[in-house]
Amino acid sequence: MTAAALLTGRRVVVTGGANGIGAVVVRRFAAMGARGTVLDLPSAPPSDLPPGWHAAAVDVRDEDSVRAALAESAALLEGIDGVVAAAGVVPSWQRLADLDLADFDRVLAINARGVAATIKHAAPLLGTGSTVTAVASLNAWRGDPNIASYAAGKHAVLGIVRSAALALGPDGVRVNAVAPGPIATDALRSRMASRRETTGLDVAEALDQAARATALRRIATAEEVADTIAFLTSDLSSGVTGQMINVDGGIQ
Questions:
Q1: CA gap 61, 113 in Å, rounded
Q2: What is the mean pLDDT of residues 133-160?
Q3: Has keyword Oxidoreductase (predicted)?
Q4: Rounded to an integer, what distance in angstroms lies between the CA atom of residue 131 and that of residue 123?
C-alpha cells in the first residue's frame, strides 16, 4: 500500500480542522484517500476544502453542539471510521501568581472538556477498526511556568485518551494521541512576536532557539504531525492504543 492510498475509504471527522494543524490533517488525509467532515467554530469556516470533504459548525465547549455535529457527520458520511480531536486554544502567557481563573476555565473547557465531549459522542458511532486521535502537546508530559492552564489541559487530554482506550478497546476502537512540539504555524509565529518584549527574541530567533533544543536541530512540521495521525488512523497501527507519540524533533 502506498502512502497515497493509506486511508482510502476512511470516513473521518476532524474537530478544529479549519486552521493550523487540523487543516493540514484534512489536506493530508484527503491526499491519502479519506473523505470527511471538518468541524469548527461558525466564525472560522474552512476554505478550499478538498473534494469529498464538508464543513459543519461546532463549539466543543457546548455538548449539544458536539452531539449534533457528530450525528450530522455520521449521517452525511454514512458512518465514521476515524475522529481527530484537534480543536484547541493556546492562552496568553500568565505567571501562576497572575493566573486568571476565568481564562483557566475557558482553556480547559476547550482543550480538555472538548476532547472528552468529542470522544463521548463519537463512541456510539464508531465500530470495530475505528480510531480516535487527540492532538495533545509536549505540555502533556511537562509543565510550563507561563501557561499552566494549557499544560493542565493537555495533561488531562492524555488521561482522557488512556481512559478511553481502556473503555473502547473491547469494542475494537483504538484511541491515541500525538504530542507536537513547537510547530511553525501562523498562530505560533504570532505568539512568538507578541512575546518579544518578554523573551528579547524576534520570531526568527525564537524559532532558531526552539530548533536548537531538539535532537534533530530543527522543529517538526505540521505535515509530520499529520502523517503521524494518519499512521494512527490507518491499519498500520492496528496494535497501538492508549499511547501518545511525540512529534517534536526529539525534545528532551
A1: 7
A2: 96
A3: yes
A4: 10
The tens digit of pLDDT for each residue in 194-229 reads 888 778 888 889 888 989 999 999 999 999 999 999
Cα 108 off chain centre by: 14
Q: How far apart are CA 43 and CA 48, in angstroms?
A: 16
Instruction: Provide the CB-side half-sphere exposure for 211 (13 A, CA).
Output: 11
pLDDT value at 2 more than 70: no
Q: What is the pLDDT of residues 22-62, one digit of tens each?
A: 999 999 999 999 999 999 999 887 878 999 999 999 999 99
- What torsion do the CA atoms of 52, 58, 60, 62 make, to the nearest 10 degrees? -150
CB 245 within 8 A of CB 178: yes
Residue identified by cell 478538498 is 50
Q: Where do the domains of the chain lie, and which CATH numbers do they carry?
A: 3-182+221-247 (3.40.50.720), 184-219 (no CATH)
- How would you class 5 by CB atoms within 10 Å of its CB: exposed for 0-12, middle for 13-18, buried for 19 or more? exposed
Is 77 part of the annotated catalytic residue set? no
pTM, to two decimals: 0.93
Task: Given the residues 29, 53, 150, 231, select the one marked as catalytic.
Answer: 150
Report the alpha-carbon distance of residue 67 to residue 69 in Å, rounded. 6
Per-residue model confidence (pLDDT) at position 45? 77
Map grid coordinates 470516513 to a residue: 11
Pairwise CA distance, residues 186 & 209, whole Å: 17
Q: Where are the alpha helices (DSSP H) in 7-47?
A: 20-31
